Amino acid sequence: MVDKTCFLGIDIATGSTKALLINQHGDVLAKETASYSLSSPHSLWSEQDPTWWTDAIDQVISAVLIKASITGEQIAAIGLTGQMHGLVMLNSAGDVIRPAILWNDQRTEKQCDEIHACTGRQRQVEITGKPALTGFTAPKMLWVRENEPQNWAAMKMMLLPKDYVRFYLTNEYATDVSDASGTSLFDLGTRSYSTEILAALEIDIATLPPIFESAQVCSVISQKAAERTGLMAGTPVVAGAGDQAAEAIGCGIVDSSCMSAVIGTSGVVFAATEKPVIDHDGRMHAYAHATPGGCHMMGVMMSAGGSLRWYVEEVMSHGDKLHYKSLLEEAERITPGCEGLIFLPYLTGERTPYADPLARAAFIGLTLRHGRAAMTRAVLEGVAFGLCQSLDLIRELGISAETLRISGGGVQSDLWLQIMADVFGIPVARVNVNEGAAFGAALLAMVGSGHFDDVVAASTSIVKETTRTQPGANKGCYAPFYQRYKQAYPALKSFFRGYA
User: Fold this and answer.
1) Domain locations in the chain as residue ranges
2) d(CA 495, CA 497)
3) Hey, which residues does 88 pair with through a beta bridge?
4) Residue 322: pLDDT band by 50, 70, 90 thresholds?
5) Are 285 and 130 in contact (CB under 8 A)?
6) Rg value, the chain, Cα
7) Which among 83, 327, 360, 386 could bridge 301 via Cys, Cβ 3.0 to 4.6 Å?
8) Helix (H) or strand (E) holding 122
9) Mean pLDDT, to the nearest integer, of 56-77?
10) Which residues are within 8 A (CB) of 117 and not within 5 positions of it... i.e. 6 or more apart?
11) Is 163 labeled as catalytic in the residue annotation?
């Protein structure tokens, strides 16, 4: 009898697909990533061809099996995660109708207004935990219906990105509660699609996949997928989770004892709650969590690590390639607050606390005294200020924690961790795993296979804090600069409208 002690997590992210193989102790056995690009055929548009994901899937799954020197028979279960809110449209034959419209696409401001006119903005927030925003799925559906009626007429199924990959691997339709709660069509109270919203928007529930809890087995690997990848046909696939919920599971954020911040391309402040906590002003967003019956609050800034990457690779790299390490070392020598230099990280608009696709990035307060090092530090501080706005809103809603766990690329910089600890006023911690959402998906597979009784047990047993960065001597000095940062967007909002 084959010993099934391996678990596979797959993350269909915006720029790459990652496969991660772990054992029953949570040790990483192998991982592989395949990258692809974005398409922006018009201003504010962001799309991908779903075949890029499926080509990557075949590649990374085969690679991790080879790297770990195992066969597909040894995998007990598979978990899926990926970028949220995307729209993949299939016809009756299961073929993709048009390129997927992604989470960071900003074309649907008009459709968001239409949704609020149909449902009532306050009612939309009460049911779904948040207003309809340009990144969400339902506005994309309305945009296609209004602008591409031939594609709308041909659509028989709408899938989120990870769920299209599930269909590719299993030939079955399904989604999970956390990803479904980012569509603007999900009722947080009932953990199901909102019949009220579907009726108001005239969307047929038959075009939406069935919803499962995240660790629930809902499909199995098909024979065709087994032949392409080396997996074994019949291997269980759990429902999985949206990338932020999966990342939180992989950081141990399963109850209200601690929160997390993810510094990836975007930035996310995440707090788990036992029941929906609704910000009726719609600034913070409530979702279903990947824990049974659980929910979470989430604040999102669109360009966190993406701001630093843009600054280093597009602004600073001319001729001689500069390394992140040397730039951060320079920034460490700059006085906190950068003598008043502030960076607004709105490179792709903003979501929290300003749901504004037209917001623009800016350096404010530049003088002849400011050089490269000051600009680098201003980017780090600007991202920390943006995340702190989400943290402040979570606290305002009565949710607090003594520690903020950090994951994503930002965890690699000691300077950035210290800036965040000083700005947030609480310790920030690294954990023993920094493999992102794919690790959380693998933990969900563990639960689905019966290796753990529930998601909380799996996450808390395997994920542990390793280091804490305490607020330091600079803790108090950021207050005036943070206040100036918060004043900048309201002062510039009407100016940004000129870019419409």
Assistant:
1) 6-244, 252-432+470-500
2) 5
3) 159
4) low
5) yes
6) 22
7) 386
8) helix 121-128
9) 97
10) none
11) no
